[in-house]
Amino acid sequence: MSGNNNSGNNNGQKKGGMALFIILVVVIIALLATVLVLLINNKKKSEQTADAGKRNVVATQGNVEEVVEQMLQEEYIEPGYYSCSMSTTWHFSKGDAESEDAYVQNVKENTNDVYFDVVLADDESHVIYQSPVIPRGAELDKIKLDEKLDAGTYDCVTIYHLVDEEQKSVSTLRVGLTIVVEG
Q1: 50 and 72 fall within a common domain
Q2: One domain for residues 15 and 79
Q3: Which pLDDT tens digit goes with each residue over 89-106?
């Protein structure tokens, strides 16, 4: 009889041990889930804080390597990115002539159609050229400014507008540009 009692105690201990093990596993899973949720929330908050501090950066020939390096170090590129393919100095024989070297391409790997405005760097309210919408894979050359400029060299900014299927702007990109009017 004493053998049966020990067997009953062993079964009870095994059941109690199994229940304790299951409770321990559930508690560990709950703790891991809580830690994971807290980490994800903290990451989202830090990304929002980082995004709030970002400003548009003008890429020029002098800082293009620095801007590209900064872009390469970013972990995540949102949909709507734009790979810029353009000449950064446009020459015009006269202020109202077509340029022979002005060139902008919306490479086929981009995710959006695009249009752009060219403004004077020291007065961005002064728009001197407005492009048509350039579909992915298309290019624009032989550009003629909307405003006749006097002879001289002008520091400008090209403001690209990435557009969705309804031609609504979803984001912008700013690139430095030099315009040279010969005569």
Answers
A1: no
A2: no
A3: 999 999 999 998 999 999
User: What is the number of alpha carbons within 13 Å of residue 91 lying toward its C-beta?
Assistant: 4
CB count in 10 Å sphere of residue 116? 26
Q: Is 158 exposed, middle or buried (0-12, 13-18, 19+ CB in 10 A)?
A: buried
Burial classification of residue 57, based on how many CB atoms lie within 10 Å of its CB (0-12 exposed, 13-18 middle, 19 or more buried): middle
The residue behind tokens 């093990």 is 21
* Residue 170 φ/ψ region, left for φ over 0, alpha for ψ in the -120 to 50 degree band, beta for the rest: alpha
% of the chain exceeding 90 in pLDDT: 40
> Are 100 and 170 found together in one domain?
yes
Distance CA 93, CA 136 (A): 30
Output the six-digit token pair for 35: 């830690």
Examine the fold and report which residue of 15, 34, 54 is the final residue of a domain before the chain moves on.
Answer: 54
Q: Assess whether 34 and 83 both reside in one domain.
A: no
Average pLDDT over residues 49-76: 63
Query: Which stretches does DSSP call E strand in 28-131?
Result: 84-86, 89-92, 103-106, 113-120, 123-130
Residue 117 in tokens: 């405005």
**112 contacts 170 by C-beta, under 8 angstroms:** yes
Q: What is the CA radius of gyration of the chain?
A: 31
